[in-house]
Structures are given as structure tokens and as C-alpha cells.
Design goal:
alpha/beta; 127 residues
């Protein structure tokens, strides 16, 4: 049975997009992963695209979405990252809040550290 995961941040342009990508990379066929934003920007940050391309993942196939655009079905985990009260309730067995800084305006080296932190957290979640 697949684990259903939803990753939520504010803009759905950095953190939640990378988390969704890592869930697909490390979970493969065992996960069904989605991402969304409480106030989506409508685009993926080019820094996130570049950071994931360094690892061989093409983030250009993703799109920035609102919570209205993801299935309203029961998730095994809803993971929020930095949206606090701005993240509305979604049906889930487990809610987790990861305190991960928004890398939007970070230089590439710092951005990579956030990317790697997200990868580590996703691996723990899948483990």
C-alpha cells in the first residue's frame, strides 16, 4: 500500500517542491507525493530547479499549486514547512511541522544546505 504524502509551504516554489521530489526519488512506487502552497507563487524558483538538477532531478516538470488543486483525500502524512496558521487543515492521519527556513533569497551554498536538510527529513519520514 502506497504512503500518501502532502508537503505544504507558503509559495509552493521551493521547500515543498523539493520535499515532493525527494519523496518520489527515495520512495519510488511506494509513495504518492503531492505539494501545495497556502499562497502559491505560480512558479518554481529557478534556484530550486538548479539545486535539484545538481542531483539529477528535473523540477521543471512540477508546477506551483494551491491546496485546492491537490486531492482532498486522506493522507498518511501532511508536512507543513513555515506556513504556520496559514496552512489550512487537510485530511491526514499524521500532521508534522518541519521548521525549515525559506531558502528563496539564499545564496546557492546556503540553498543547498536547506535542500539537503529537506532530503534528510524526507528520508526519515519514509524510513
Amino acid at each position: 500500500m502506497k504512503k500518501r504524502l502532502l508537503f505544504v509551504c507558503i509559495e509552493n516554489s521551493n521547500r515543498s517542491q523539493m520535499a515532493q521530489a525527494f519523496a518520489k526519488i527515495h520512495g519510488g512506487e511506494m509513495v504518492e507525493a503531492y505539494s501545495a502552497g497556502s499562497k502559491p507563487s505560480g512558479k518554481i524558483n529557478p534556484k530550486a530547479v538548479a539545486a535539484m538538477a545538481e542531483l539529477g532531478y528535473d523540477l521543471t516538470s512540477h508546477s506551483s499549486k494551491s491546496l485546492d488543486e491537490v486531492p482532498k483525500e486522506m493522507y498518511d502524512y501532511v508536512v507543513t514547512m513555515g506556513c504556520g496558521d496559514a496552512c489550512p487543515w487537510m485530511p491526514a492521519k499524521n500532521f508534522i511541522d518541519w521548521q525549515i527556513p525559506d531558502p528563496r533569497n539564499m545564496e546557492p551554498e546556503e540553498f543547498r544546505k536547506v535542500r539537503d536538510l529537506i532530503e534528510s527529513q524526507v528520508k526519515k519520514l519514509l524510513g
